[in-house]
C-alpha cells in the first residue's frame, strides 16, 4: 500500500503503524495545528489524519474505528460510527470525531499528534445480484430479526 504524507509532522510522529505484534489496526494521528476542544453533543468534527492511501488492489477496504480507550475513558467516538475508506479513494483520510458525553460535561481536548482513531483493513466481496420472485434456498429464519432469537 502506498502512503502519501500530507502533513509533514507525520514524518516525526511516524506513519500509521501496528503498536504490537498482535494489533489488528493501525493508529491514526490527529493532525491539528493546536489543541482542539470538542464540546459534548456538538456536531461531529472532521480531523485530518495527515495521510492519503493508494490501495492498489480493490479486494480490500479500510475501516476507521474509534480507539477503545478514547471512547470508554473520554467519550471521544466517531461521528459516523465507522468510517469506510473505499479502495478507489485516494484523497485525504479524515476522522469524524464526536464527543458523546452529556451536555454540560467539559469539552474533550484533542492534542496535535494524539492517536484518536484506528484503521483496520478488511476484504471486500462484491456479489452480483440476481432479482428473483422467491429464494432458491429458504431458512428457518426467513422472517423476524431485531431480537427474533431472544434476548
TrEMBL record:
Q: What is this protein called?
A: dUTP diphosphatase
Keyword annotations: Hydrolase, Nucleotide metabolism
A GO MF term: dUTP diphosphatase activity
NCBIfam families in UniProt: dut, PRK00601.1
- Give the EC number(s) under which this enzyme is classified: 3.6.1.23
Q: Which GO terms describe its biological process?
A: dUMP biosynthetic process; dUTP catabolic process
Matching entries from InterPro entries are given as: dUTPase, dUTPase-like, dUTPase-like_sf, dUTPase_trimeric
What is the reaction catalyzed?
dUTP + H2O = dUMP + diphosphate + H(+)
Cited Pfam families: dUTPase
Q: Which residues form the dUTPase-like domain?
A: 12-150
Q: Which domain of life is it from?
A: Bacteria
Q: Which gene encodes it?
A: dut
Q: Which family does it belong to?
A: Belongs to the dUTPase family.
- Keyword flag Metal-binding: no
Amino acid at each position: 500500500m502506498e502512503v502519501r504524507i500530507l502533513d509533514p509532522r507525520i514524518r516525526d510522529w511516524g506513519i500509521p503503524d501496528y503498536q504490537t505484534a498482535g494489533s489488528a489496526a493501525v493508529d491514526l494521528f490527529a493532525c491539528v495545528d493546536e489543541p482542539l476542544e470538542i464540546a459534548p453533543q456538538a456536531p461531529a468534527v472532521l480531523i485530518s489524519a495527515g495521510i492519503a492511501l493508494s490501495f492498489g488492489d480493490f479486494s480490500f477496504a479500510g475501516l476507521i474505528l474509534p480507539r477503545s480507550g478514547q471512547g470508554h475513558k473520554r467519550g471521544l467516538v466517531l461521528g459516523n460510527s465507522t468510517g469506510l475508506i473505499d479502495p478507489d479513494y485516494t484523497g485525504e483520510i479524515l476522522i469524524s470525531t464526536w464527543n458523546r458525553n452529556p451536555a454540560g460535561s467539559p469539552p474533550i481536548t484533542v492534542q496535535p499528534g494524539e492517536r484518536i482513531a484506528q484503521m483496520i483493513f478488511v476484504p471486500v466481496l462484491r456479489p452480483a445480484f440476481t432479482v428473483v420472485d422467491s429464494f432458491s434456498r429458504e431458512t428457518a429464519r426467513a422472517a423476524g430479526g431485531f431480537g427474533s432469537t431472544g434476548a
